[in-house]
Amino acid sequence: MTTAKIKLSATADVEEFVNAASKCEYDIDVFYNRFIIDAKSILGVLSMDLSRELTVKCYGDDPQFFSRIQKFAVA
Predict the structure, then answer these.
(1) Close Cβ partners of 4 (under 8 Å, ≥ 6 residues apart)
(2) H or E, element range at 16
(3) DSSP, res 17
(4) pLDDT tens-digit readout, 33-74
(5) Closest residue by Cα to residue 60 from 7, 15, 2
(6) Which entry of 6, 31, 64, 69 is 20 to 30 Å from 37 by CA?
(7) Where are the transmembrane segments (predicted)?
(8) pTM of the full predicted structure?
(9) Which residues pair with 28 in a beta bridge?
(10) Whole-angstrom distance, CA of residue 15 vs CA of residue 42
(11) 18 CB contacts (<8 Å, ≥6 apart)?
(12) Half-sphere exposure of residue 68: CA atoms within 13 angstroms, side-chain side
């Protein structure tokens, strides 16, 4: 299991992130406070507060996924 912090600033970013997550065969969740959303659900991710930093938790190992979402990473 791997975690990363991301920030999605626009709906185009959400679309790109969800498309990257959908290409993975394992589960990926997005966390903010007590809310847990399936990263492959565009409506779920859009319902989150996009002005905040989000935590992504991956239940598999795919380096290509992390390279695709690297541009959304927060230090």
Answers:
(1) 55, 56, 58, 66, 69, 73
(2) helix 11-22
(3) H
(4) 899 999 999 999 999 999 999 999 999 988 889 899 999 999
(5) 2
(6) 64
(7) none
(8) 0.90
(9) 58
(10) 7
(11) 39, 40, 41, 42, 45
(12) 16
Q: Which domains does the chain have, with CATH numbers?
A: 2-72 (3.30.1340.10)
Distance in angstroms (rounded) separating the CA atoms of residues 70 and 4: 9
Question: Which one-letter amino acid corresponds to residue 21?
Answer: A
What is the total residue count of the chain? 75
Distance CA(26)–CA(47), nearest Å, equals: 22
Residue 75 has pLDDT above 80, yes or no: no
Say whether pLDDT at 15 is over 80.
yes
d(C-alpha 37, C-alpha 27), whole Å: 11
Are 26 and 67 in contact, with CB atoms under 8 Å apart?
Answer: no
Name the one residue in this structure whose structure tokens are 């969740």.
29
